[in-house]
Structures are given as C-alpha cells and as structure tokens.
Amino acid sequence: MILEMKVPSPGESITEVEIAEWLVADGDYVEKDQAIAEVDSDKATLELPAEASGTITLKAEEGDAVEVGAVVCLIDTSAAKPEGGDTAPVKEEKEEEAPKKEAPKVAATETKTYATGTASPAAKKILDEKGMDASSVSGTGKDGRITKEDAVNAVPSMGTPTGGSRGTSRSKMSMLRRKVAERLVEAKNTTAMLTTFNEVDMSPIFELRKQYKEDFKAKHGVSLGFMSFFSLAVVRALKLYPAVNSMIDGKEMLSYDFVDISIAVSGPKGLMVPVIRNAENLSFRGVESEVKRLAIRARDGQITVDEMTGGTFTISNGGVFGSMLSTPIINPPQSGILGMHNIVERPVAIDGKVEIRPIMYVALSYDHRIIDGKESVGFLVAVKEALENPVELLMDNDIKKALEM
User: Quick one: angle between helices 284-299 and 226-240, nearest 10?
Assistant: First the structure.
C-alpha cells in the first residue's frame, strides 16, 4: 500500500511551509513516528514525523515552498524492513559515509607555462613598490611574462591591496527569517513608533540575588534571574497604564485584562518570541520556570506555533549580547516593547555624593497612535520604581513568601 504524506497544518492562518531539510534520503526505510524532515513555517521550525513504516519516496526538494495539504512524500507500507533492523540514518551520517569525489582534472587548455604570470626582476620591483601582486596583472611578454612596461602601466585597485580573498556567497533565507524581516518592516511602516528611555539602579536586585539565589535554585531548580523581576515589574506597570496593554483593531482599541508577555529569544533559525501566558498570576518561581522551559524549547527547535501565538506585550533583552542602548521594534499587533540592556557600573549622584552603582538603561518603544507620551513615560517610570524598590512593590515586604522560601 502506498501512503501519501501531506503537509499538516502547523497553525491557524498558515497556508504554506518550506522544506528546510530532509532527514532521510529517497529510498530509505523509515519507522512510524520517525522524524523525516524539518519544515519552516513563518513562525517556527517543526519536525515532520513519518505516518507509517516503509520505504520512502521524496516528492519535494529542500528549499521548496509547499502548500498545507500538499503531498511531500510517499511511503510504501508493504516494503519489508531491511535485514539487521537498521532504519534510515540521519542525513549527516550519510554525508560522512559518502565517498569523496576525485578532484576534476584541469583541461589542457588551462595549463599555464612556467613564464605565465611571472614578473621580470624589474617588473617585480615596480609591482612591490605599488603594493600589487603579480597575479593581478596580465603579462604581454612571451608566454604571458610580465614585462617592466606591464608593471609601469598597471593600476592598483581602489582600497588597500591585501591580496586576500574577496569571494562572496549567496544563500536562501529561511521562511522564518523572511517572515521576521517582513514583520519588522511592517512595524516600522504601519505604526507611529516612538521610544522613551530611562535608567535603573540595579543595586537592590543585586543584593536580593546575592542573598537568596543559591537557596532559590536549590529549592526550585531554577536560577533567580533578572527576567522575573522585569516581568513582574511590567505586570504592575501595565495595571497602572492599561493603554500600553492594548492594540489597534481596525478602528477600535482592544484592551486586555490579562498579561501575556512575549520574550524575544535567539534560536537556531533566528529570532523567536515565545509567550509567557497570564504572567499576572505567576510568582518569581513561576516566571523563571516558564522562561527556562521556553528558552530550552526554542534553542532545541521544539517550540510550537501555539507557544508563539498571541502576546500582549514584549520584553527583549539585548544586554545578554552586550548592548548598551537600543530602540527595540514593536512586535505587531502589540503596542509596546521593553528593551533591557547590559549592566555597567557608573558614577551616579546619591544624596549629593558620587557613588558607583550598577546601572541599566531601559527603553520603551510604543505605538503613539494609542499611547500618549504621559502614559509611555509613566509606564517606564513605574517599571523603574518597581526594580529599584522590589521588596515593597514586587514582594509586598515579604521576601521569603514572594520567593516561596
């Protein structure tokens, strides 16, 4: 029996996917539920499992864009399993076992004589003075020999002549990368985006983490990082300024009474934005556990479309890459995104005296169509206040209860 394997729908509104990589070769024997391909949608990379055991015939090439419901391969379920019980090896193993091809022989017409490209002593001296390599000059002498006149007439290329490689390469962008690019341009072109900045003294959080992070990790199995403080500070600020937790839907303003925080993470296929659902109901442990779970799934390419759908507000942490300051781009159709940055010890004035404090610059990009300057600045100030006074504003003056110690 020949089974037609069709592209399943990876999520609502997705009409096509791209064959990113076949994990098996044409004619291999595959087992049911074995991963046979990786497919890219405009939101995530997903594995395609075999629907039955048998010999596979591929009907699409890597890089092909295929519609949802299209046949991508055939499986002959009547085929016998090879002796020894071995199934199809992964593609990388097949490539390693493949015999090396012999280098193509150079045609006789391409063979150079001894004199071809060789500069005379006088020509070599002139080329050295010009900083030029003999290989960049065409010789007019016998058998292509470079003469003194060739060297005098040679013109150095613009820029510093290094003689190094100047090759280029061209590769196709994945569907996910192309979609990210489209959404970034869409956000810039369709929103009235503006960014406001502030700075946060991270000393109180440093002290809390120094005192409690070991016990927190021992009890809960996750680290007490910065993301839980920022997430809960955002939840508090969104309650104070609900317009930031809204978005435009046609001619209407859609507001939410819950907080789904999208967190921008770097995955193997590019930027991914999984969502922490109902962050307003989570504790420090809950946020840290969810951040860890989503980050691992994104890193391993296991994140699903549902886990990246929705979100009412986004947090992006460029500080992990060393960014000091940036203007993050809104994640449409959301109306706001908070940018975190690196923490640097800076001199600041405290009660009329200069002290060294760990300072982070924070940025809020927002859609000015529905968020006014007063609300945007007030929101960012509320985030700053909560981060600089976490015991009172985020822990209700009960540290051990907040951390569930």
Answer: 110
N-term to C-term CA, the chain: 60
215-240: b or e for each residue (b if 16 or more CB lie within 10 Å)?
Answer: ebeeebebbbbbbbbbbbbbbbbbee
What CATH code would you report for 194-402? 3.30.559.10
User: Three-class SS string for 147-191?
Assistant: CHHHHHHCCCCCCCCCCCCCCCCCCCCCHHHHHHHHHHHHHHHHC
Residue ranges in 14-83 assigned as alpha helix (H): none
Residue in this structure with the two tokens 């046979």, named with its chain if needed: 36
pLDDT digits (tens, 9 = 90+) for 284-298: 999 999 999 998 888
Q: Which positions are annotated as active-site residues?
A: 368, 372
- Architecture of the CATH domain 2-84: Beta Barrel (2.40)
CA 341 – CA 322 distance, rounded (Å) = 7
Give the DSSP H or E segment for 341: none
What are the pLDDT digits (tens) for 352-389? 999 999 999 999 999 999 999 999 999 999 999 999 99
Is the CB of residue 195 less than 8 Å from the CB of residue 364?
yes
Class of domain 116-152: few secondary structures
